[in-house]
Specification:
It contains no helices and eleven strands. It is 0% helix and 51% strand. The strands form two sheets. Strands 2, 4, 5, 6, 9, 10 and 11 form a seven-stranded mixed β-sheet that branches. Strands 1-3-8-7 form a four-stranded antiparallel β-sheet, with no helix packed on it.
Amino acid sequence: QVQLVESGGGLVQAGGSLRLSCVASGRTISNYAMGWFRQAPGKEREFVAAISWSGRNTDYAGSVKGRFTISRDYAKNTVYLQMNSLKPEDTAVYYCAARYYSYSVYVNDYKDWGQGTQVTVSS
């Protein structure tokens, strides 16, 4: 089991930036793929970004590609999501998730989840 805690969410105006952090505990995440997902009111949880256990491979949803960057710091056992050029449609609760070895874009492929952090983007 990996315990995950997200932070860094908040209220920001369109065009602004936020950096979300996901701190893992219980075990190191060096052999885990990590993902970020989000869920807006009335919508299904959707894929945002993922990074492989090695950090050499990343994947992004088309809606955030070029604006968001996922990264990881093995020494700090932390995964980040840098969000730039934020849009109102980015408003959602953002969740960090962990999966052993290979990354996935599917919600059901992840076993360990954080509690989520709210991101609200105003126009």
